[in-house]
Amino acid sequence: MEQLVFDNPSMREGLNLTVRNGWKWARHNNTYVYLTDGNTGEIIDSALINTVTLAFKDIPNWVLEFEHDKDCRTKNGLYESMIDIYGQSFDVNSAVTLVFFWMNA
Question: Sign (positive/negative) of CA torsion 22, 38, 81, 33?
Answer without folding.
Answer: positive
